[in-house]
Amino acid sequence: MYNEHRSDSTENYFERSENVLMPLARTFIDKKVFANAEELKRLADVNLFIEYAFFLDVAKLIDDDDLGIFWNITLELIRDYSDEEKMPSFLSSMCYVTRERKVTLLFRGQLLKICYAKWYIGLSAKCENEHLDVIRSLIHKEQEGCFEKEIMIDVYLNNVAINKHQELFKILRLLYDSYENISVRLLEALINFTFMCDEEDLKNNAAFIEQLILEYPIDDSNPHLNYEYTRYTISVLERHHDAVFAKKMNKKLIEGFNHGYLHSNFDGLCSILLEKYTDEVWNDFEVAFTDDKYLGFILQVKNEIGSGAGFGAGPLFQLGNERIKDMCLKHPNNAPVRIAEMMPIYDGNMWECNSFSEIMQWILNTYGNQAMVLSGIHANIHTFGWTGSVIGLFQHHKMCMEQLLNHKFTEVREWAANCIQEFDEEIKRETLHEDYVRLHYQ
Fold it and tell me: What residue ranges of the chain have pLDDT lower than 50?
């Protein structure tokens, strides 16, 4: 029916559906199908999608006595199912369309009495109203010990029917004010319901959103959510410029990354902060980047903000060489070595470059007499991803390296000579390998 009338508005679609399905609903009532345990069990077991309009029609036709019979039979029927199972769809639909009727409220209460707490919470959540009476009632019952806090919050947020997007933040704020240590679950719900939020909602609730983000742990305790957290936080940082939030987020990342090696994906957070909030985060970033106490942080962001597995400029070096040079001059013992390991080897398209990058030449001219700097550059050059023949790559590196044979530092000249020898050996080895492959497979 939906496919036949896709162009209809939602209101017209439901009106048309109700008219079409009304005869079926009359049959459901007149033939007492609602009181037939076998038919209801068949509905539950098959669990097919049934047009919502059908239940709207049934709700119009069924009186309280018959509705009570339906719920009594259903109550016996569901004892064959576990509270851990997903409830039959017809049950939730029927509960919603009759949510304000006394017999339905009694049925929901009976679920809790027979220890079907999750079904009770889920069905109740689907009947939420604009005054948030349901969640207030659930909070009260949780405080009375009817069910656990974590179960109540999780099941409620998975099932709540939000009719107006303004209700979303009212619900999240109410839960946040009622309980401690639930910001991760609330942020997950917010991410899931993002499609409902317009720019005005997000603007009006920016402080609350940022608070949830800042309370999220930068660790591996939520691996399933870390990626979504990262994407959502990036969108918040991009949407509007909040310097205070950016500084707090930057400090949070530094401490989180430095605490332990993380296997989960937070890539992009450090980059967006450097790109969009350079002046606001730079001082804290520079302190961490040049301090041995923050080696964990440096090791985990170097590939993201540096050249990584390529030879170009990462986000850190897109801020301009002057800022990098200034940091090296202020911290000559640590900064040059770390910059050497992650700086761009070439400026732009390497094939269009006849020499190494400007920042690399400056590092060599300024700190080329330091063995650790030369070692860092060597590691940087030899960290790359490549497809096809690498012979041309090594030849290009060699050509640029030859320009350093007359460098002012003896250390650089000797280092360059050794690198050229390595490139010659690698070119020879790769040439022999490619000749073998060509001979063997062609």
Answer: 1-2
